[in-house]
User: What shape does this take?
Amino acid sequence: MTFDIKNKGNAEQVVLTRLNDRVPGIEYYKLEVTWKEPSTPEEILIGWDEPMGELEAGWTPTKNPGYPLCYGPHQDSRYCTGAPMCVSIGPGGANYVTVALLDSVIPTKIRFVSDELGRLNTFWTVQLFHAPSDRRTSYSTVLRIDRRSIPWYDAAQQVALWWEEELHTEKKVPDLTETPLYSTWYIYRQNPRQEILERELKKVSELGFRTVILDDGWQFDPEEGLYAYCGDWEPSPVKFPDFAGFVEKVHSYGMKILVWFALPFAGYDSKCYQTFRDKIFDDRYPKLKTALLDIRFPEVRKYLTDLYLRFIRDYKLDGVKLDFLDSYHTSDRSAPFREGMDCESIETATKIMLEEITAVTRSADPDFLVEFREHYFGPEILRNGNIVRNGDCPFDPLQNHFGIANLRLFVRSSAIHSDMMIWSVKETPERGCLNFVHSLFGVPQISVSFLDLPEKHLEMVQAVLRYWEKNKEILLHGHFRASHPELMYTVCSSENEEKRITVLYCEGAYTYAGFSEEDIWRTECEGDVLVRNPACESLRITVFDCFGKVRSETVTSQPCFAVLTPRAGRIELRKIR
Assistant: This one.
């Protein structure tokens, strides 16, 4: 294959060498770049043509549907954002071409353009060093191109396996990361209160929850608001008159607690901002009353690292939720490199600081919990986190299932969590249950007030959590399949050798696949699900509603039959031997 390599800057040599193919159908190329003397790298562009064929869709870790295929999806990746992978998809959901880079730290872009200038092909480009990076004399990475005709979701998941093997990112995920989690965010927003939360969390613990995130708002008094005091990280004496006592109370309930921090923020009214006002990376959030600290200065990193570690130790925290890390990306407003900094790129500075915090916390507690959020979920940054949550989507179950499915395709070494589920007590329990059905393939995070939840809603929550706990090994670690990413996934399933669990997000038909047990969840309104049984197996069909109660039961071996299914209900197919 012929590559078009454009060295747009100061590199002395750019060499792309074909490596031995370890897997038929996958090509590996080693990219090596050298400079005569230590230099700040400038842009390098690698391009090549692929036959267009019957291209139907494209996917990247950060892509939302609706991007015109003729312009091609593109993946902008760096340490704090995204992951360097792009998939083109052919008929029937088959992989057409999947391209990935081994390095997920430096700024890169991967994209393809379809039918460029009538050439009836796809032109792929891999762009490196389009944003500031650290000075160096050499650089190397590996380009991986997969043309195998396998399901596109398998091609994506095998990139994740490649990253894990080559980068040695595999780590033990604490058991607690894969249990339902309670969050204060949507229900209490920026006004959590110790006296209310102590009653709420007692109720939550009685329902079986073992982890809580105390989210934003604990760090300022009610009249102050927004992020003006971020950076000092002192509990509000009004909202939490005894913060240490609050943490102790949570522990007495048998629960672990994580506390929210917006790591980059220095609020305008904080002591931190006054100390470091000449060391600001970017001031892009004036409406939030905060700037971004420039952690390329070692003294800024030391301040933050010491502050977090002291807070964790003093209050005996079990984990942290680190928010807004994806704010660390270079823009036209970002401060330039200058004297006193020991890193030229914000990516390197973030990596150094997170690794130092991780080393200290894990040495004290190997199961210390760290939650990251979409879109800082690349293989390198996830060395420092063990929970990765879908991005904010309150009252939007559809976006939750789309984000969780995306994460399932390329995150292997962290627990994948839903965004916090919230629904109105005025809605039906079936509508509330849709939040869980759309989030089945991730760990559920919930943010409702169980003190005020109606009895029927509580019954629904308990029923669906019992199902999730019973089946979580399959749901979280089974072979994951996802259909039609361009339509936000119409069907997803996860399976082991004996059982498959499927969610029909919009389709009303299902084909029995021959497993001993197959569960089918439905998100649409009550109606028939058409089940095809091509081998005419003898099947026991049991229908459950959202409360886990049996609505109907029958036995059939017909090749095709309809099953009346309630909204947010499930069908259980059991092979009769």
